[in-house]
Amino acid sequence: MLKLGQWFFRYRDYTPIPIILLLFIIAEFNPVYFFTGISLTVIGELIRIIAVAYIGGISRTRKGTVDNLVTSGPFSRLRNPLYAGNFLLSLGLSCLSGVWWFLILYLFLFWIQYIPIVAWEEALLEKKFGEEYLNYKKAVPRFFPKLGKAGVSQGEYNFKKALKSERSTLSTVIIIYFIICTKFFFWNQLTEWVRQ
Question: Could you read off the pLDDT of 48-78 as tens digits, one per residue?
């Protein structure tokens, strides 16, 4: 499982390509799915930006190397806020399909990829930080945020660098929305016009 996690981690930018292509092919406009999708995408990206502001550019690495253990900001509530952001962002994009079975497919594929990635990352962090990471692991949940009255622990963060780091994600999301909206609102009218 760890080797699979390492492989998925290295190629995580490319593994969604087949499902995105399928999305382009099958997408049909459904207003409820469409506006739910936009909301989830925005929430997911905001979570990613906040998490990247705390963890920095290391989130873009392909090697899995890390110099320090980040436990502040959203990382004080959840061990994997970036993946929580990815989950919501991608779920939002999946809603653009307008069909329920695509959401089920997305959920299945997301967990198939991210469970091994998280297991691999946790093994690396455990090896590098030992007791410090084990204590953090006991105190902070893996996937569902720790709620409560205690405030989020503050640490160093940089939103300017986070926005710069997130440019490629934001660009990809905008391109996907552009293609889908073109299909929904222009392509159908164009093909009808050509048939007449």
Answer: 999 999 887 665 555 556 678 888 889 988 9
